[in-house]
Amino acid sequence: MSTFVVGDVHGRRAQLRHLLSLLPRDAGRDALVLLGDLIDRGEDIPGTVADVLKLLNDSPAGGVVVLRGNHEQMLLDFLDEGAWLWLHPAVGSAETFGQYTGGPLTEELRSWWEEAQRRTRDSLPPEHLEFFRSLPLFYEDEHAFYVHAGLDGEKHPCETDARHLLWSRNPDFYKHYHGKPCVFGHTPTPLLPLLGRLGRHGIYVSHSAIGIDTGYDHASPLTCLQLPEFNLYQTFADGHTAQFHMTNFIPEPFRAFRRDGAKAEQ
User: Tens of pLDDT along 88-131?
Assistant: First the structure.
C-alpha cells in the first residue's frame, strides 16, 4: 500500500486536478493525504474545497485524509472569535473573501471586521464550514507522521500542542529530527535550510523530516510525494508536469524498507 501526500494547495484547483490525474493511485488500496491550507491566495478556492469534499465523499472510509492548516485555523478563529489575523493582507484572505462573497475585501472592511465576519459567515456554504471544523491536526500510518507544520522534538503528534502542529517553524526540527519520518508543509521549501534541498527536486529531506510545500508563485509546483517509493509528482501553473524517482537522500526507515523488500524478492 502506498500513501500519496500533497503539499499546501492554496486554491490552485486546476493544478490539484492535474496533479491527482497523474497519480498511479489505487483508490481502494492507497491513501491520499492533503497537508492542509486548501484556502487563501489561489484562483478558485470554493472550487478547490468542493473538489476535495467530493473526493472525500466518493472514497472508501480512510482513503482520503485532509489535515487542517493554519489558514483554515485563521479563518475559523476569525469567524468564531473575531481574531483579526485572517484579514491581514499577507494571508491571502482577500481571494477567499472575494470568491465566496462576490465582493472585495476593502480596507474599510478590514477595519470594520464585524461586517467582514458577517459577510464571510453568510457566504460560506454550511458544508464547507463544517468541513473546516472537522479537519484533524495529524495523521499517522505505517510509513510516517503527517502534519501541517512540524513536530515538537520527538513528541508524538497526539502529545504535541495544536498551535505547534499548525504554526511551528523550528530550525531544530528541520535540521535534527530523527524520529519516525514526518512529512510536513506550511514552510515553503525555498525557505528551509539549503543542505536539505540540494538534489531533492524542490522538496526538503533532512534525516527524518520531509518538507513538501514547494511554494506559491507562478513558477512553483504543487507537489505530491508517494511513500514508501519516494516518487515525486509535480504540476505547474503553465500546465507542464514533472516526475522523479528519488534514489538519494532517502531517510533510513525507507532505505530499510527497500532493503527488506529486495531480500523478500530473492
Answer: 999 999 999 999 999 999 999 999 999 999 999 999 999 999 99
Q: What does the DSSP assignment read for the chain? A: --EEEE---TT-HHHHHHHHHH----TTT-EEEE-S--SSSSS-HHHHHHHHHHHHHHSPTTSEEEPPPHHHHHHHHHHHH--GGGGSGGGTHHHHHHHHHSS---HHHHHSHHHHHHHHHHHS-HHHHHHHHH--SEEE-SS-EEESS--STT--GGGS-HHHHHH---HHHHHH--SS-EEE-SS-GGGS-GGGTTTSTT-EEETTEEE-----STTPPEEEEEETTTEEEEE-TTS-EEEEE--SS--HHHHHHHHHHHHHH-
In this structure, the number of other CB atoms found within 10 A of the CB of residue 243 comes to: 11
Sheet containing strand 222-227, strands side by side? 64-66, 31-34, 3-6, 222-227, 231-235, 241-245
Residues of the chain with pLDDT under 50: 264-266
Residue of 124, 144, 125 whose CA lies nearest to 67:
144
- In the numeric block, the cell 483554515 is attached to 72
Q: Crossing angle for the helix pair 126-134 and 70-81, nearest 10 degrees?
A: 120
Pairing between β-strand 241-245 and β-strand 231-235 as defined by DSSP bridges: antiparallel
CB 138 within 8 A of CB 147: yes
Q: What is the CATH number of domain 3-69+135-265?
A: 3.60.21.10
Is the distance from CB of 14 to CB of 92 less than 8 angstroms? no
Sign of the torsion angle spanned by Cα atoms 216, 221, 226, 230:
negative
Tell me how far the alpha carbon of residue 140 is from its chain's centroid: 15
User: Could you count the other beta carbons within 10 Å of the beta carbon of residue 139?
Assistant: 21
